[in-house]
Amino acid sequence: MPKLDAYDSYLADSGPAALVIRQPLMSVEGDDGVIFPATYAAAENSRVFAGGYNIDHFDDGSNVCLIDSVGSQANRIEPMFDDRNCDGRYAGLVPQVRVQAGEKEISILEAGHRAGDALVRCSELQQELQDAFKSVLQGDCLPLAKSAPTSLVFGVWDSRDTQAKLPRLMTSTIRAFNVKKLTRSAQFVPATEYVDEGLLEATKDKKTKDAYAERGFIHVPASGSHGGVIADKVRRDATLSLSALRLTCRTPNPEQNLKLQRYILGLALTAFTYASTGYLRQGCNLVCHPDKEREFVEVYGNGERKPATITHEDALAFAKAAAEGFGIGESQTVPFDKTKAKKDVKKKD
After folding, report:
1. Which of 16, 49, 91, 237 is most buried, judging by how many CB atoms fall within 10 Å of its CB?
2. C-alpha distance from residue 233 to each of 29, 34, 218, 258, 278 (Å)
3. End-to-end alpha-carbon separation of the chain, Å?
4. What pLDDT score was predicted for residue 139?
């Protein structure tokens, strides 16, 4: 078991401003493999962004393509703490808080707005978390750390109620550099010629034809759609902001403050060193590049960069010790409250 003070240098004002990982990646198919970035809806002004892949072009002819956004990476990593995932390896680090919504039992770790999500707000947890957010506004993060500690790691904004906001301590993004955009075409061929064989009536009505196409009864061409990209390089950039942790994760009592910061640091280090690559979506399966070294450094306020040596196993062992020293909050499952939801909707009016 590691010492509880093993990483206290990260919590000192003289400590690093951040930890940074830059991990070269590649498609499972190889350096020249085709990868499929995330696609995005068009902007309200389609001239600004017409939709599709998010590729930024520069005057020198280079470009950068977003493969996986900060929000998407957070949503992939945070559920690791759910006791139903990762064989329950990380479950003991945080309270297991869930909301029973209909037939689904949803973890707060899956909720898009975390402790500020409508799912949580419209349940028995409403008052508890409202009080916790009010404490945040007073400079005390201890109640929120007891109820929803990952909200302190991945960021939260109680935008529909108290307006309390905490930044992401950990950010991770995957980008591809100097990409060549591809297109693809396809042709759906039905099992038989339903109209020609008299199985369906011939028609000139567009609505009927569209229905035939939608239900798979006629030939449907798909031409020039998104076909992925080939990139010169792909890289995951991750940052753990220790200066933000020291500034925002606080509670007035000095002894409790140290326990709180150690606990949040343990969670953050565990998430930060977790391997978040692999299968991202259809056509995008990324692995660490075997021929390019990862950069993992401590970055100080004066710009100095020192090699960091923390392994995931080190981080997890420290997180377990810090969680025991802090005393994690109570696990609970509560029902979604329809009455609260109706009142919540009326607040908008």
Report:
1. 16
2. 14, 12, 41, 41, 16
3. 54
4. 96
Do 152 and 257 lie in one domain? The reply is yes
Identity at 5, one-letter amino acid code: D
Of 211, 171, 216, 175, residue with least CA distance to 194:
216
Other C-beta atoms closer than 10 Å to the C-beta of 232 total 13
Are the C-beta atoms of 145 and 260 separated by less than 8 Å? yes
Tokens in use for 179?
């990409």
Cα(12)–Cα(5) distance, integer angstroms: 11
Q: For 16, list phi and psi in degrees, rounded to 5.
A: -60, 150
Does the pTM of the predicted model rise above 0.85?
Answer: yes
Instruction: Tell me: do 52 and 198 sit in the same domain.
Output: no
Asked if 24 and 141 sit in the same domain, the reply is yes
